[in-house]
Amino acid sequence: MTLGHSDTLVSITDLNRTFTGGRRLLRKSRTMNAVSNVSLQIERGSVTGVVGESGCGKSTLARLALRLIEPTSGRVMFDGIDIGTLTPKAMRSMRRRMQMVFQDPYSAIDPRYRLQDALLEPFRLQGVKLTKAEASAKVEELLTMVGLRPELARSYPHQLSGGQKQRAGIARALALQPEFLVLDEPTASLDVSIQAQIIGLLERLKDELGLTYLFISHDLGLVRYFSDRIVVMYLGRVVELLPTPTALPRHPYTKALLDSTFEPDPKLRRAVAPAEGEIPSAFDLPPGCAYASRCPFAQERCRTERPELQSRPHHSLGNADGNMPPYEHPVACHFPLSLTSI
Amino acid sequence: MSLLAVDNLSISIGNVTLLDGITFSVDKGKVLGIVGESGSGKSLTALSVMGLLPLSRGRIRSGSVIFDGIDLTGLREADYRKLRGNRIAFIAQNPMTSLDPVISVGDQIDQVLRLHLKMTRKAARQRSIELLSQLRIPEAAEVCKLYPHQLSGGMKQRIVIAMALAADPDLIIADEPTTALDVTVQAQIIELLVQLVRQRDMALMLITHDMGVIAQACDDVVVLYAGRVAESNEVGAIFRQQNHPYTQALIGCIPRAGMAPGSLKGIPGSVPSVSSYASGCRFHPRCPAAADVCRTQTPQITKTADGGHVACHFSAGVQG
């Protein structure tokens, strides 16, 4: 699916990844489709948000996008190059251009490394020779860039707070001046006050360095704030592609995610739908729509026939601001919510 | 009279004062939110009401904790045991660590009923199944036979809630009960707790760092910073007007629908550790409105025009 943009940095086509497991005594191993038929275009300079609950495949998609794991099938093109065909050596040099910031800043940095060693490791791995003076200048530059005091260069991770560690993780990802950053729940383990700091930092760096982000999160409120377009995943599949952060949801699952996001305003208290179960096991998925078991609108057809992701014609308003939608708005649902009923 | 009234409570470990002059109260049928960043003293406040301070070698230095007319600060451990799990229940942050992995979840709920309500095995199991059904757990009788590792996070947290409800307590203290859960499950659990409070006329002390959860679920709010109360008020009033800059900053951390890029504000710096509390107002190093007086003088808790309390030298809402 194309969103009609010419300057695509990352192009993901029909990506699939299965894992086998669940083997027990007298039972065959089963296959889990962690990522199924995902296609996605990431425009240069944009923030693409990926949202979904635990187990929806968003972290697997992140790792596939950087070829940290191999896809079962499908293709990832980075700046016109099919990264699946690269030799290990070529892939390693490609990694300079694409980096990742991990969820847990507590485990992302080796506890025995001083901060300066962690920040210089990417150069060592890439075989970039730096003189002592260059190295310390580089460390200072990186620390300053992410808002850390240069004196922290000699500290160990345990001497830093969670927020400082995540800043260090971002600094390390930026060391080789990449164009593309995958942010895998970079604030999930932080306090809200620190989360806001880190998001502010990522916004500033994006503008200063012209970065492109793939931003993974389970928090639709945060994703709506930070992203230009939003991919909603459920059990390995894309169920909806919101073309703008304010686009109204058409998939009941996206609506449920939105209703689970609490606004900091008691006047906007939400009626939370009574417990409609939880995300089912990704093994042995039913033939129909994977969300049917939790969906308040599910009908017989939803349990037997899987809805494909397709753009629906817009007859009514597509954006909260009242303009006609400038983009396509694909949704995988037999009975998408009409935009007037929300 | 309030069900729980904490007045001017100070807690210390050794010579270090961790909580300083905490005052709040909770009524039956109401949800009190206690909010602040990590390190602000939220969990310690919960532990002091539960009488669990000795576990962290904490000691009550001054103040009182009155629960239904009983001063808990002078209570003997044996008497506390009769209250805990019976009239005051606790829901911890992480359901993965608050359940025993080698005992089936049904047996764990049964234990509460048999200990506090002296029920027989059979009656206890009957009641456990009822409780789980009320918490909308399907096939509750089957679930009772399962072990924690066989359940999802949200399901485990519901088991913990069932244990908390088992003896029909008057007060539930929930310490970040949804932090470890997915957003859709968080919304369901918060909704469930609030409904239970209304239906059973219990009181709930809900500890969180998320002003979104406060806005959604609470009737009253206490904002803690570095072991002191920054501000307290009714929930509507506190979101209409923040009398303390810290409250304002905490609300500013939550993204709202339609917020412009770049407008999400964090709070600069981080919560100080006990050993490096600032002089005067402890928030002054991070406060955008700090002046000289904030560095030297500790602001006293004052009543505000909108019915709340605030500890800030420059609060707009302070009464004449």
Strand order, main sheet of chain A: write it out. 6-7-8-3-9-10
Residue windows where pLDDT falls under 50 for at least 5 positions of chain A: 1-5, 315-320
Write the CATH homologous superfamily of the largest domain in chain B: P-loop containing nucleotide triphosphate hydrolases
Which strand-content bin applies to the residues of chain B? 15-25%
Most extensive chain-chain interface: A-B, 45 and 47 residues
**Annotation field: number of helices of chain B:** 12
In total, how many beta strands of chain B?
12
- Sketch the major β-sheet of chain A: 6 strands, mixed
* Number of DSSP-assigned strands of chain A: 12
CATH architecture verdict of the largest domain in chain B: 3-Layer(aba) Sandwich
Q: Give the CATH topology of the largest domain in chain B.
A: Rossmann fold
Q: Work out the radius of gyration of chain A.
A: 21 Å
**SS content category of chain B:** alpha/beta
In brief:
Chain A has 342 residues and is α/β, with parallel strands linked by helices. Chain A contains ten helices and twelve strands.
Features:
heterodimer; A: 342 residues; alpha/beta; Rossmann fold; six-stranded mixed β-sheet; four-stranded antiparallel β-sheet; disordered N terminus; B: 320 residues; eight-stranded mixed β-sheet; 34% helix; globular
SSE topology:
The complex is a heterodimer of chains A (342) and B (320).
Chain A: E1 8-21, E2 30-43, E3 47-51, H1 58-65, E4 73-78, E5 81-82, H2 88-94, E6 98-101, H3 105-108, H4 115-125, H5 132-145, H6 162-174, E7 180-184, H7 192-209, E8 212-217, H8 220-226, E9 229-234, E10 237-242, H9 252-259, H10 300-304, E11 310-311, E12 330-331
Parallel strand pairs in A: 3-8, 3-9, 6-7, 7-8
Antiparallel strand pairs in A: 1-2, 1-4, 4-5, 9-10, 11-12
Helix pairs in contact in A: 4-6, 6-7
Chain B: E1 4-13, E2 16-26, E3 31-35, H1 42-50, E4 59-67, E5 70-71, H2 77-83, E6 88-91, H3 95-98, H4 105-116, H5 121-134, H6 140-144, H7 153-165, E7 171-175, H8 183-200, E8 203-208, H9 211-217, E9 220-225, E10 228-234, H10 235-240, H11 245-252, H12 292-296, E11 302-303, E12 309-310
Parallel strand pairs in B: 3-8, 3-9, 6-7, 7-8
Antiparallel strand pairs in B: 1-2, 1-4, 4-5, 9-10, 10-12, 11-12
Helix pairs in contact in B: 4-5, 4-7, 7-8
